[in-house]
Amino acid sequence: MDDKIRILLSEEEVAKRVKEVADQISRDYKGKPLHLICILKGGVFFTCELAKRIELPLTMDFMSVSSYGAGTVSSGIVKIIKDLDDPIEGKDVLIVEDIIDSGNTLAYLIEVLKQRNPNSIELCTLLDKPERRVKDQVKVKYTCFTVPDQFIIGYGLDFDQLYRNLPYIGVIEQQ
Ligand code: PRP
Ligand code: MN
Ligand code: MG
């Protein structure tokens, strides 16, 4: 646990940007049955901060998927650990993620969720790491920040399950 962490985005920078994106979502979804789907575990902090700032009635559900396990490279095989509780038919679904890296997780999720007939399905991510994308059919409607190809932690993102609770976004420096 003596990893050296460098702050990439401070708590204040993240809060400001999350508010801007929440305002944009509030405008875009006015009058629609907005249904946020939080992708656990990484998406949990961002989903809570975002949801508190969206000025619309909304519903929420949670899905837990994993493609990394304890490793730092996507296995490409996405496992559903916990499915949604509620049907999404007819709803305007917004998937909320902490980061899009290879795109494997979201490509799989969109495929699975489209078959359940939502009225619409869009993506909102805290971080996008486009350099690593292998699934380029993943179109993201809302991105808070684009980040370089480094191993990112904090604000929900883990390294071997640790560091999710950091209030800022950081990178682990090579020792
Ligand atoms: C991480 C992250 C995204 C996904 C992004 O989740 O939270 O869900 O990987 O990577 P991809 O675009 O290459 O698929 P992870 O599988 O580590 O599970 P976790 O959220 O529980 O940490
Ligand atoms: Mn995740
Ligand atoms: Mg993870």
From TrEMBL:
CDD domains in the cross-refs: PRTases_typeI
An example molecular function term from Gene Ontology annotations: hypoxanthine phosphoribosyltransferase activity
Superkingdom of this protein's organism: Bacteria
Pathway: Purine metabolism; GMP biosynthesis via salvage pathway; GMP from guanine: step 1/1; Purine metabolism; IMP biosynthesis via salvage pathway; IMP from hypoxanthine: step 1/1
Cross-referenced InterPro entries: HGPRT (IPR050408), Hxn_phspho_trans (IPR005904), PRTase-like (IPR029057), PRTase_dom (IPR000836)
Residue span, Phosphoribosyltransferase domain: 9-159
Locations listed in the record: Cytoplasm
Reactions performed catalytically: IMP + diphosphate = hypoxanthine + 5-phospho-alpha-D-ribose 1-diphosphate; GMP + diphosphate = guanine + 5-phospho-alpha-D-ribose 1-diphosphate
Keywords, sorted A to Z: Cytoplasm, Glycosyltransferase, Magnesium, Metal-binding, Nucleotide-binding, Purine salvage, Transferase
Needed cofactors: Mg(2+)
Predominant cellular place of this UniProt entry's protein: cytoplasm
SUPFAM superfamilies in the cross-refs: PRTase-like
Pfam families reported for this sequence: Pribosyltran
GO BP terms: GMP salvage; guanine salvage; hypoxanthine metabolic process; IMP salvage; purine ribonucleoside salvage
GO cellular component, one term: cytosol
EC annotation from Swiss-Prot or TrEMBL: 2.4.2.8
KW Lipoprotein (keyword) present: no
PANTHER family assigned: HYPOXANTHINE PHOSPHORIBOSYLTRANSFERASE, HYPOXANTHINE-GUANINE PHOSPHORIBOSYLTRANSFERASE
Protein family according to the UniProt entry: Belongs to the purine/pyrimidine phosphoribosyltransferase family.
Purpose of the protein: Purine salvage pathway enzyme that catalyzes the transfer of the ribosyl-5-phosphate group from 5-phospho-alpha-D-ribose 1-diphosphate (PRPP) to the N9 position of the 6-oxopurines hypoxanthine and guanine to form the corresponding ribonucleotides IMP (inosine 5'-monophosphate) and GMP (guanosine 5'-monophosphate), with the release of PPi.
NCBIfam families listed in its UniProt record: HGPRTase (TIGR01203)
Protein known as: Hypoxanthine phosphoribosyltransferase
